[in-house]
Automatic annotation (TrEMBL):
The keyword Metal-binding does not apply. Homodimer. Catalyzes the first step in hexosamine metabolism, converting fructose-6P into glucosamine-6P using glutamine as a nitrogen source. The chain holds residues 245 to 608 of 608 of the full protein. Its EC number is 2.6.1.16. It is found in: Cytoplasm. GO terms for cellular component: cytosol. This is Glutamine--fructose-6-phosphate aminotransferase [isomerizing]. The active site is at K359 (for fru-6p isomerization activity). It comes from the Bacteria. Keywords: Aminotransferase, Cytoplasm, Glutamine amidotransferase, Repeat, Transferase. Its main location: cytoplasm.
């Protein structure tokens, strides 16, 4: 039941502090309990040298985030591809590579076909990060990590995505012990996972502010999301959410690509949503946003106070809580979930069951 909430989507957004904590405790931290992946996990993890991630939609975005994390913190090559492309192309064999599928339902036809069609010996082993126990991907993969999101009813994926990201951080820790992940980084990551539910609560506390800015989107037909680094896939996820439930055409670009095309679209009717944490790429992003502003674009900037953005006539700053760099893609995601939810509410669309979409895509 939806309980006190008007929609499953809002309920599921609000469940995130709890289900994120449950996914963290399922992993048996502070040391990762590797048997939760399967009896054979330790032997497989010892040999893994690279990861091939295959997924669809929101789960694919989780894979894109993981690529930034695994390559930055472990120097481990990580390749990510949408399942519908991966399954139909001739692929080069990659030695000692783990095939990692990510899927809320565990039943997505293309992701399942990718696993089933992998050539014998093409991969070292398969691992799935899934939310539904005993689903096809869970039954057919060598190793499994079960996100503890609980049933997700809303077609737009929310808590499944953020718990997938936690699953990927747990995997990072499991590999990290073998690949010499800096002890300080490991400690930092454990602390960050522990404070994550509170950080998400702090984002939820911004609900009224996000609802207020959402009113400005009612008449819009297009929106542009920008992010850099690991926040580029977060921008992609934000734009997917907006288009799914509010039917506003939304695109996401790495901010550095602005000048290579999308800037031509920017005028006073184009809201530009920026994911702007206070990181080493902030100054680069700031100059991209200046370019948007000087062309009359209206800016919605999700940023912590330290980033120094100020609201003005056509700049709307949504304050983000301070949180650890490694988990902050999760907190920014929650803010963007709320934005699309409230835009959809203003537009009166069917939030939980957007037109033309199914919760689980079991045919290609
Ligand atoms: O169950 P899966 O995670 O495999 O589903 C993949 C996509 O169909 C799914 O994430 C879809 O993109 C959602 N509607 C996004 O909100």
């Amino acid at each position: 039941s939806k309980g006190e909430f008007d929609h499953f989507m809002l309920k599921e957004i609000y469940e995130q502090p709890r289900v994120l904590a449950e996914t963290v405790s399922y992993a048996g931290l502070p040391t990762v309990d590797e048997t939760i992946f399967g009896d054979n996990a330790s032997a497989v993890f010892d040999q893994v040298e690279a990861i091939q991630i295959v997924a669809c939609g929101t789960s694919y975005h989780a894979g894109m985030v993981a690529k930034y994390w695994f390559e930055q913190h472990l120097g481990m090559p990580c390749y990510v591809e949408v399942a519908s492309e991966f399954r139909y192309r001739a692929r080069a064999k990659r030695p000692n590579t783990l095939l990692l599928t990510i899927s809320q339902s565990g039943e997505t036809a293309d992701s399942l076909a990718a696993l089933r069609d992998a050539a014998p010996g093409e991969f070292l082993a398969s691992l799935v990060i899934a939310n539904v126990d005993n689903s096809a991907l869970v039954r057919e993969s060598d190793l499994v990590f079960l996100t503890q999101a609980g049933p997700e009813i809303g077609v737009a994926s929310t808590k499944a995505f953020t718990t997938q990201l936690v699953g990927l951080l747990v995997l990072l820790l499991a590999f990290g012990r073998r690949k010499g992940l800096d002890a300080e980084v490991q400690k930092q990551l454990l602390l960050a996972l522990r404070s994550l539910p509170d950080n998400v609560e702090a984002v939820l506390a911004q609900r009224a502010r996000i609802e207020a800015v959402s009113e400005r989107f009612i008449q819009k037909h297009h929106a542009l999301f920008l992010g850099r680094g690991v926040y580029y896939p977060i921008a992609l996820e934000g734009s997917l959410k907006l288009k799914e439930i509010s039917y506003i055409h939304a695109e996401a670009y790495p901010a550095g690509e602005l000048k290579h095309g999308p800037l031509a679209l920017v005028d006073e009717d184009m809201p530009v949503i920026a994911v702007a944490p206070n990181d080493e790429l902030l100054e680069k992003l700031r100059s991209n946003l200046e370019e948007v502003r000087s062309r009359g674009g209206e800016l919605y900037v999700f940023a912590p106070e330290e980033a120094g953005f100020e609201s003005s006539d056509r700049v709307h700053v949504i304050n983000m809580p301070h949180c650890d760099a490694i988990t902050s893609p999760i907190t920014y995601t929650v803010a963007l979930q709320l934005l699309s939810y409230y835009v959809a509410i203003q537009k009166g669309t069917d939030v939980d069951k957007p037109r033309n979409l199914a919760k689980s895509v079991t045919v290609e």
